[in-house]
Specification:
heterodimer, A: 315 residues, mainly alpha, MetI-like fold, 14 helices, 71% helix, globular, disordered C terminus, B: alpha/beta, Rossmann fold, six-stranded mixed sheet, four-stranded antiparallel sheet, 10 helices
Chain lengths: 315, 296
């Protein structure tokens, strides 16, 4: 195993504090979303007393309508992660399709795909998503699907790929000129196979970073949409919880246990994903790894009285 | 002893080309222009101008010139990595395809060894991948184990052995990588090899080893080799014919010894003068020392 990993070790993140903390945060929240709902009461059971503060049978209290907040939080986390993952994946597939194809094949295909990517890039994201969501959800013949989190994820995915596509295009353009790509062409490999077998594996860190970024954007996008009332009203997510809390005037009622937990969870998930992303960025750009190390050594030297900048006869 | 070659046809004329057209690669009237664009200004770079080359089976033709002289462009055109602006590449006297299944047939015959062994192997894949893929692509009838046997055999031929199959490029030295690249070029069963400065990125001490390997393979398989280099000494030692390229033009051609010993074109003479010759440098040092001693 160690032997097999040797060649791809430079593609794996280093075990830095950032990476470990991020991984623990994301792992814990994912676990909570996956298995939490098994151990809580039905999140849509409104038979409890409304606005109970935390404690007793309801560790996180109840909402105005008498839902258990912990149960809603667990199911909401699952819902938000589903939207995030699906939205992120859709965005990634589109980004790979547009970015890497444009970067590798070049010429007129590049021109067309890049123009389209740039148009998507300059359209302001949230207004487009709002219009699209409002339009699709009011469309007839969709039934339950119109109010589902799957539809919201798809909308977030197809509006959020352009930034990643630009990054991947630039990298694919650079890899295209490598001699091993030319060697694969001389060997007789077809274009799409060269992309899949010779280029994509070397883009794994970058693609992982784009996926994490996409997941984060979709989670936050869903929260924003839900808060505006355009979210998946048919299911429970962290965003719909916040929307309920807002329409139920939780702040006015002093029911902090209603809006703080979902808000905190979104913030922690975003933090965790960002930290993992930073760790992956260090693989893509080794300079990020070297610079903090150099700064640390300089500080150490200054402390030990060997500094150049401060102390000494030149200061 | 030597007849002045001024009576022979000009260096770029087809009459002077030799070789058996039935088994050769021929480059005929090749031109390649690159369009340059710097802001609103556009210009055209004539990278290759009216090049004619014949590489017969079993012969080594060296293409010598400085960086930017167009020699690598010719290599990439013959390897079908670029399309020429005009002119054509003939294989066994027939016009060669640009795409499709016919191009695959061309690639089976004509392979390339790249300049930088550190860039020409994909860091993600094992050595087995690099050699088995071309075998599989060009011999789809072989079974998996036959392909593996063939790859092991190819590695033996470049003096590496099957143990290297499971290694990855980063575990190999530059010379070993270039041997892998040669095995990869042989994998489809090629009759012609384009070697684009195959040793310029290697340590001086292992260059001769790699070049000797190429020469051995060439003799045993009757390969036609287009050896691209800026090193006159190895060009003379390893090739039958030398073409000198300067700013896109082939300015001189002839048998290896002839071109080196009796250069006609002033650029070739300059190239020869520029080559470091230990004896000549030693004489120069003695001269300078004598001058200095006189002054004292």
């Amino acid at each position: 195993m160690a032997d097999r990993l040797a060649g791809v070790r430079h593609l794996l993140p280093r075990m830095s504090a950032k990476f470990v903390v991020g991984l623990i945060l994301v792992g814990a929240i994912t676990l909570f979303g996956l298995i939490g709902p098994q151990f809580t009461v039905d999140p849509l059971d409104s038979s409890f007393k409304g606005l109970l503060p935390p404690g007793g049978e309801h560790p996180l209290g109840t909402t105005k309508l008498g839902y258990d907040v912990l149960a809603q939080l667990a199911t909401g986390t699952r819902g938000s992660l589903y939207v995030g993952l699906l939205g992120g994946l859709v965005a990634l597939v589109l980004a790979i399709g547009f970015g890497i194809m444009a970067g590798y094949f070049g010429d007129w295909l590049d021109e067309i795909l890049t123009v389209f990517t740039n148009i998507m890039l300059v359209i302001p994201g949230l207004p487009l998503v709002m219009i699209l969501a409002a339009y699709v959800q009011s469309a007839e013949g969709l039934g339950d699907f119109a109010r589902s989190s799957t539809l919201v994820a798809l909308i977030l995915g197809i509006t959020g790929w352009s930034g990643s596509a630009i990054v991947l295009r630039a990298q694919a353009r650079s890899l295209r000129t490598r001699e091993y790509v030319a060697a694969a062409r001389v060997a007789g490999e077809k274009g799409l196979r060269i992309i899949a077998v010779e280029i994509l594996p070397n883009l794994v860190p970058l693609i992982a970073a784009q996926l994490i970024w996409g997941v984060m954007a979709a989670v936050l996008g869903e929260a924003g949409l839900s808060y505006l009332g355009l979210g998946p009203t048919g299911s429970v997510t962290l965003g719909t919880m916040l929307n309920d809390a807002q329409t139920g005037q939780a702040v006015g009622a002093g029911a902090w246990w209603w809006f703080v937990p979902p808000g905190l969870l979104i913030a922690l998930l975003g933090t965790g994903l960002s930290l993992v992303n930073f760790a992956i960025d260090e693989i893509v750009n080794p300079k990020l790894r070297a610079a903090p190390e150099a700064a640390r050594q300089q500080r150490k030297a200054t402390k030990a009285g060997k500094g150049v900048a401060s102390g000494g006869s030149f200061a | 002893m030597t007849t002045p070659r001024s009576s022979s046809p000009p260096p770029n004329s087809p009459e002077q080309l030799c070789g058996d057209p039935a088994s050769s690669i021929e480059v005929r009237g090749l031109n390649k222009d690159f369009k340059l664009r710097r802001g609103p200004r556009r210009s055209v770079l004539h990278a290759v101008v009216d090049a004619n080359i014949v590489i017969g089976a079993g012969r080594t033709v060296a293409l010598v010139g400085e960086s930017g002289s167009g020699k690598s462009t010719i290599a990439r055109i013959v390897a079908k990595l670029e399309t020429p602006t005009s002119g054509e590449v003939l294989l066994d006297g027939e016009r060669t395809p640009v795409r499709g299944a016919a191009l695959s047939g061309y690639r089976r015959q004509v392979q390339m060894v790249f300049q930088d062994p550190f860039a020409s192997l994909n860091p993600f894949h094992s050595i087995a991948h690099h050699i088995e893929r071309p075998v599989k692509l060009h011999h789809p009838e072989l079974t998996r184990s036959q392909i593996r046997d063939r790859a092991a055999e190819l590695l033996e031929r470049v003096q590496l052995g099957p143990a290297y199959l499971n290694r990855r490029p980063h575990e190999l030295s530059g010379g070993q990588r270039q041997r892998v690249a040669i095995a990869r070029a042989l994998a489809p069963g090629a009759r012609f090899i384009i070697a684009d400065e195959p040793v310029s990125m290697l340590d001086v001490s292992i260059r001769v080893g790699v070049l000797n390997l190429l020469a051995d393979l060439q003799r045993s398989d009757g390969l036609g080799v287009l050896y691209i280099t800026h090193d006159l000494a190895t060009a003379r030692h390893f090739s039958d014919e030398i073409l000198v390229m300067h700013r896109g033009h082939i300015v001189e051609r002839g048998s290896a010894d002839d071109v080196i010993l009796h250069p006609q074109h002033e650029y070739t003479q300059a190239l020869r003068e520029a080559a470091a010759d230990p004896e000549r440098l030693g004489a120069l040092r003695d001269e300078v020392r004598a001058e200095l001693a006189k002054e004292v």
